[in-house]
Amino acid sequence: MRYSRMRQLADMTREELLQVLFRDIRKIPTARVKRRLRGYLFCRARIDSNVEHLASLESAAQKITAAYKAVPGGGGTGSGRAEVVSQIIQLQKYIKAESKRLQEELQLVQFMINSLDNYQERIVLNYRYINGKTFEEIADKMHYELRQVYRIHGRTLKKLVALEEKMSLNVSHKSDII
To answer: Which percentage of the chain shows pLDDT scores above 70?
Structure first.
């Protein structure tokens, strides 16, 4: 917690602190839904970063050549290329596993978005959580005021919280039956 926030809280009365606490507690379910929706973008960013790293490793592997010297035993261990190739193989396996996870994350996000009845809400969430657009970009694309996009987004998150609660209730009832 930042020092200024702590200072603010220290100056509050007990009633004001309780109000802040209850307001923050109400935000927890929407934060959980946002984290689920952002899972796809985070996974995609990790894959993109690893693909860039893989390209740099492959470039480095092509540049590594064996060093020959006139004096026997004067060279290094010669394991530079083998080490880079090993890293490349490990990174390729990791990217493959992350790609599978990316597909699962995308399916989850699409399921949550497609469960909404309102077309505007689906479009806002698609732009935000699948395409990674900012609220300003969404407002510009949809020809809406920024406040309207914020309202649609907030209202939609509340609907998704209710959906998530229903889904978790169904899962817990199924586990009770088994």
So the answer is: 76
Q: Which two tokens stand for residue 137?
A: 């970009």
Residue 140 has pLDDT above 60, yes or no: yes
Rounded Cα distance between 78 and 69, Å, is 12
Cα 61 from Cα 123, distance rounded (Å): 44
Q: DSSP letter at 145?
A: -
Q: What's the per-residue H, E or C state across 71-137? A: CCCCCCCCCHHHHHHHHHHHHHHHHHHHHHHHHHHHHHHHHHHHCCCCHHHHHHHHHHHHCCCCHHH
CA-derived radius of gyration, the chain: 25
Instruction: Give the tens place of pLDDT for each residue, 107-138.
Output: 988 998 999 999 999 999 999 999 999 999 99
How far is it, in rounded angstroms, from Cα 129 to Cα 149?
Answer: 14
CA nearest neighbour of 161 among 24, 53, 58, 32? 32
- Asked if 103 and 37 touch (Cβ cutoff 8 Å), the reply is no
Going by C-alpha positions, the residue among 109, 121, 106 that lies closest to residue 159 is 121
Q: pLDDT digit string (tens) for 48-57?
A: 999 998 888 8
Please list, residue by residue across 81-120, b when 16 or more beta carbons sit within 10 angstroms of its beta carbon and e when fewer do. eeebeeebeebeeebeebeeebeebbeebbebbeebeeee
